[in-house]
Amino acid sequence: MNNRRNFLKKITWGAGFASLGMPQLVEAKSTDFNTIQENDAQSAFLGQQQFNMCGFAAPKLDKVRIGFIGLGNRGPGAVSRMNLIEGVEIVALCDKDPKRASAQQAKLEKAGRPKAKEYSGEEGWKAMCASSDIDLVYIATPWSMHTPMAVYAMNQGKHVAIEVPAAKTIDECWQLVETSEKTKKHCMMLENCCYDFFEQLTLNMVRNGLFGELVHVEGAYVHDLIDSNFSKTSYSDMWRLRENMRNGNLYPTHGLGPIAQCLNINRGDKFDHLVSISTNDFQMAARAKEEAAKDPFFNEFAGKTYRGNMNNTIIRTNHGKTVLLQHDVTSTRPYSRIHLLSGTKGVAQKWPEPVRIALGEEWMKEAEMKEMEAKYITPLVKHIGEIAKKVGGHGGMDFIMDWRLIDCLRNGLPLDQDVYDAASWSAIAPLSEASVAKKGKTVEVPDFTRGSWNSNKPVSLSLEGGATTEMRKS
To answer: 148 and 240 in one domain?
Structure first.
């Protein structure tokens, strides 16, 4: 009880608390690394789970009425994809900049869809979330707004889908869990890499025991983003450059999501503890100084401390498996998410291309690979994969993700990613920061399921009861 009371003291309540009868989050406190390490404050919620959202199936929705928040970077692509899916009504468009909402409105008009209501300004998203004609709020804003918007939307009776990461602090992770359990509203982090083709294939192979017992897995986000981080137009208010002033694995979920599903994290196993180490920063501060010398706009970014080029984070699970995560968005090297599964009977590896599988000590030949792909393609990819490739969005995985979300909501099926996944995958960022700050000291990973991981069922690869959602006929 005291732990819960201490946590609640950390929440900043909005002025709407008295009138709405519910908390309105303004801003979560930043993670206290010393508290995390020495007092184990990340396990603040030791009480019982309010309601188990793993495997939860919300009532069917014949039509999924969507409101979008954030139409600058990822949002427009999501509007375009949802525009193609049957059973979707795009009823609201929201961005701080009204021009962005209007630009997406034109897409709806071209597709012959009814006009959506537009919201804008600093507080427009709150008005949108309060609207009674929305079932799902799709959030594609800067990271710092993900949890406040998701919590507010769930408290307004909406399901939420949040771009990655879902939360920036451990407090925020718990807020998502508590709110989803309390409201019985879905909180899905939009981890698209779980729906990529090789990741789906290898997940099915794991389920069929081809790799034996998984022992070690690896994932990464290695992507040279230094130019876009210093671009005045890529991210509004230079928010992503500001995020790089933190030091840890700041963007873990693309590599982590697919391998966590293969390990049945939160569904038979859980993350136990981690250690994290970063290199020095060899480029970011130098680039900031260089840009400031040419343009006074960058003066505020010069002389600041930035994250190291490469971060290595190692996680150990409760069942003794290990996870290696890497994060580097500065160094000059080809893009890689890694995706390595190593078991007692075989291994799978993606990045660098081509993808490879070995069920022994030699990599499979091309003909064998094609046989595996044909035999272990998941029902989801078999049903919608070819259409997804034509639609696009990171090779089609974005569309598979969006289609699957809508089909689950329309058929009253559990989602592939629940709030515990959103919390435990996102939590790696602040926990890695804490470990880096303490020279690689071990940090415990909280159990956001509060014990239900022992009995939760693995993510279903079946489309039983679903696959009724088709492409929209314009």
So the answer is: no
Are 187 and 318 in a shared domain? no
Q: Which residues contact 437 (CB under 8 A, 6 or more apart)?
A: 33, 247
Non-local (6+) Cβ contacts of 89 within 8 A are 63, 64, 65, 66, 113, 114
Residue 433 buriedness (CB in 10 A; 0-12 / 13-18 / 19+)? buried
User: Please, what is the Cα angle at 204 between 198 and 210, to 5 degrees?
Assistant: 100
Q: Answer yes or no: is 420 within a domain.
A: yes
Sequence-separated (6 or more) residues with CB below 8 Å from residue 457: 54, 55, 267
**Structural domain total, the chain:** 2
Using the 3D structure, point to which of 150, 173, 191 is the last residue of a domain: 191
The answer to pTM > 0.90 is yes
pLDDT tens digits, 180-211: 999 999 999 999 999 999 999 999 999 999 99
Range of the domain at 330: 193-454
Give the number of other CB atoms < 10 A from CB of residue 359: 18
Tokens of 128: 């949108």
3-class secondary-structure state, position 90? strand
230-248 residue pLDDT tens: 999 999 999 999 999 999 9
Question: Residues 124, 100: contact at Cβ < 8 Å?
Answer: no
DSSP state of 193: G
CA–CA separation, 425 and 253 (whole Å): 6
Residues 6+ apart with CB under 8 A from 453: 265, 266, 267, 268, 269, 270, 318, 420, 447
